[in-house]
Every structure is written in C-alpha cells, then in structure tokens.
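Sequence, structure tokens passed on for absentees:
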Amino acid sequence: MAQRRTTPARGVVYTLVIMCAAAFAADAWAQPRAKTAPTSPPPSSQRDSGGLKDEARQRRLRLFPPSTQPALPEGSTVRIGDWVYRAVRANPADGVPWDLMVTPVEERADRWQLGFAGQSLPPLDMARRRAPGDVLRPGMAAPRGSTAVIEVPDVLWKQWFAQDMADVVGVHFHEVVSEDKARILYSLHKVPPDSPDGKPPADYKGVSGARIEATLLTPLAFHLDQTIVARVDPHKKDLVESRTQHELAHAAVSQDVFLAVLHGPQDWNVEACTGRRTKLAYYWRREEIGRTWREFRGGREKVKAIRTTVVLVPPTRWSLMLPIPPDRVMQSMVDEFNESIVRVSQRFAEVDAVAQERFHGQHGAFEAATGP
C-alpha cells in the first residue's frame, strides 16, 4: 500500500500586537517547532519577506492622541525591499477605513503568480516531463524536469527504506515550512459599533460582543515542500507510472489543504456574534530545491523537491467575533487567535492527515509490492 510521511512541522510566531489605545509591540523570529524549547537565539540566516531587517524587540505604543507626523498624499507608494506599499480606501463593510496594499516591485513581478479566492494551485504533473532513464541510481542527483518524482529500482528500495516500508510502492513526502517573520496588527472593536451620539444603535437585533481584527502589515511566506518516490517493479516496469499518478493525487490533496489552512475557518455569524472570516491576498510561485527527508536514505542526502511558496500580503486580514463585551476580552484570547493564524505547519499536519485518509477511503490505498 502507498504511504506518506510528514516530517516535524515548523511555524512562525507573531511579531506585532496592538490592543486598544495603549499597548505593547513585540517582534520575534520564527522558530522551528521542537519537542523541547530552544535554548539559543535564532540563526541570522532566517528570512524576512518584509525586507525591514529589524531586530526582535518589544516596545510600548500609544494610539491616542494621533501622530502629528505628516501623512503621504493619497495614492503615494513606498518601496521596502522587493515590495511596494500603498494605502487605499476600504470597503465600509470591512469595518476599517483604509486598506494597506502590497505588490511585488516591477522588476520582480514576473517571479510571482497572483492568487485568487477559491483558486486551486495547478497540479505538479502539469510540468512533468518523462525521459528514458529517469531513474535515481547511486551517485546520481534527481533528474531535472520530473516534478520531484524519483523512481527507485526495487533492489535499492530495500536498501534505502526501513523494513516497515518493505511492501510500500510509493511515498509522498511533504511538509509545510516557514522561517519568516510575521508582523500583525491586532485591534479590538465593539459589536455593534456605537452611533455618533455614543450609544448603541437602537435597531440592532443581533447579539452584542467584540470583534478582533488581525491585519497583516508585511509579506509573510509559507512553503509546501513535496517529493514523490515511486518503486520500480523489476517484472512490471510500467506499474511505476500508475504508482506515480497515485502519489501525485495525494500531492494535489495536500495543496488544497495548504490553501484551506491559510484561509482558516470561515464560519462568520453576525447575528450570533461568533465565528471567523478571512480576507486573503497572496502571491505564489514554484521552484526546485534540494532537501532531506528523514525516512528517505535515513535523511543523509538531499533529494529533489518542489517548493510551492505562498506569500500572504496586505490587505490580508483575519477577523474573529466573540459574544462578550470588549472589556472582557483577555490577552489569552488574542494569543489563541494568533496561534491559529501563524501556526500553519501544525494545523496543516492535522488537517492533511484527515484528508489523506479520506482520499484512501474513496480511492483505495493502492497495491502492495510483491515478492521477497
């Protein structure tokens, strides 16, 4: 039967929190998740898609009285790193007066594809090219142009995989990774908002409560790495193609789960003052990388993988409604909301496992290898 393996997940932590009129702001680098807490500072090689290159720190912020610093004229743009920032008037239904918009700089725009709500990422096999001898042998690197599909002869399979995978004919290795720095603005709002006279609207029929808005301030990247390994039957070599297609179907499931987890729950209920909604803006691209997988050759050598990078950009915003007064919203609730946003790796591993089991229930677990 075909099996998949997922290596330990990694995630990011939030870097900026602003609550009410006076609050603290904190920056922190993303840390790979581990069984024990890290005891050393994060390496300097970690990424910052926002391009600000600032150090982790905590500082007190005050939102009132407003700043006297002159504002840029409407329509002005600011370039920071590889991204261009501008402010546009928001839809009143969004509950905020302005949206921050971020797009790639012109000279790098061709590296990115713009994502759309409800859009699925194209399958990996769209660009797959097959060629004679597209088989990994000792001392050979994985061939280019095969969409990270590695065909392993039967004799090498028995040497490269553990005994408990002796009857496996295909593996879909996959992991969501992020070592980026997130900057998110958290703000607290009253539901419903007061009328201009400072009193709740008299005609409001729903449940009163609070709304937490989490607004992304700078680009934030997440990566889905995937490698497919197919076993070559020494007697029926044509089986490798069907085994590959089976694992490619698992890869498509993981891609759908990846985007769904980035969106998060969508159960917004205005009348009950509960649930979440997300306004997601993103760019994506694919590239070939080399990386190790713990279960393949003991994780000793890098193999080819396809990395699908999704960069969330402003005006991405996550919203949460709570049926409690704003003054009863605790920091722990904000922290829990934040964790659900930035700990994408952990959530992906959980949701993907369920989705892959559902796939097996619908399509079967494929055949097992035969012979000694």
About this structure: Residues 3-7+14-28+52-68+76-363 form one domain. Residues 239-263 form the longest helix (25 residues). The helical segments are 154-160, 239-263, 331-342, 344-363.
